[in-house]
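Quick question, first post here. What does this chain look like in 3D?
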Amino acid sequence: MNKIENEQLDKITGGNISTVSGPIINAIVNIINVLEDAGYAFGSGIRRIIENKICPLN
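> Answer (accepted):
Ran it through. C-alpha cells below.
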C-alpha cells in the first residue's frame, strides 16, 4: 500500500452532494403512504355519504 502525502490528501474528493440519502427516501415514502391512506378514508367517506350508509351519531 502506498503512503499518501498531505498534498495528495487535500485533492481527495468523495461522495456526491446531490445524492438522496436513505432517511430522505424513507420520509418521502412515509408521506406518500399517509396521503394514500387519507385518500382511501376520504373516498370511503364520500362513498358512504352517496350510498346513505352513515352510522347515526345518537
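The two ends are 80 Å apart (CA to CA).
The CA atoms of residues 47 and 53 lie 8 Å apart.
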